Amino acid sequence: MNFIKALNSAWHENNSLLCVGLDPDPARFPAHLQNRPDAIFEFCRAIVDATADLVCSFKPQIAYFAARRAEEQLEALIDHIHVRHPKTPVILDAKRGDIGSTAEQYAIEAFERFRADAVTINPYLGRDSVDPYLAYCDKGIILLCRTSNPGGSDLQFLDVGGEKLYERVARLVSKEWNTNGQCALVVGATFPGEIARVRTLTGDMPLLVPGIGAQGGDIEATVRAGCTASGGLIINSSRAILYAGKGEDYANAARSVAVATRDAINLHR
């Protein structure tokens, strides 16, 4: 799957900029799933099937699976999405960042083992640490730029030759690193001013925007700062959708919140 083409198609066909983040925490699962060996897969599968027509992508966070030795359930989940919802791209949220030889292994993990359509990575080690991912010409490479956490400013706002570090990252990725046209950037909804600045620097490059919902990012400000004619934004919501319900109807509750979130985003497009 060509990630950017699939993303553009999903933006149009589902009329949605919403991405559902899959961060499964078994402690918050409904009672009927507690202690089941396949609980993580079953929980996420139900959320996926209930919301697939409402989203532009799904974003499983690898740490929530790996911490519970559930990597095989992650593989099964991504395979399920590809089989049942083949037009919906999957972003593996891994935030990898290492030297070239190790990055090659991380790229194999993301794109060959898990068969993700895109992966999040950290650009701090520079271009040679990104090249192994770029070798997969159709896969999405989503680089951290201006993250949604308060501590992101510790480094991302440092002055580097007259521009802030996050601006340097945005410029480098859009002008020099985006050799396959498959790159995107992470910019948090908690900083709409920086979303607008990154949009100015990168043109129509897709932006993965975490931080609405539980983190308090403003939907209207996010959309106005970063939306493009084709879409331009992958606006992620995780906990607010995943844990909208506590009983056996949790997937229906998740769908209701996803509908409301998608519609709130579209209201400002």
From TrEMBL:
It catalyses: orotidine 5'-phosphate + H(+) = UMP + CO2. HAMAP family: OMPdecase_type2. Pfam families: OMPdecase. This is Orotidine 5'-phosphate decarboxylase. InterPro entries: Aldolase_TIM, OMPdecase_AS, OMPdecase_type-2, OMPdeCOase_dom, RibuloseP-bd_barrel. Signal peptide: none annotated. Its EC number is 4.1.1.23. Pathway: Pyrimidine metabolism; UMP biosynthesis via de novo pathway; UMP from orotate: step 2/2. The active site is at K95 (proton donor). CDD domains: OMP_decarboxylase_like. The gene is pyrF.
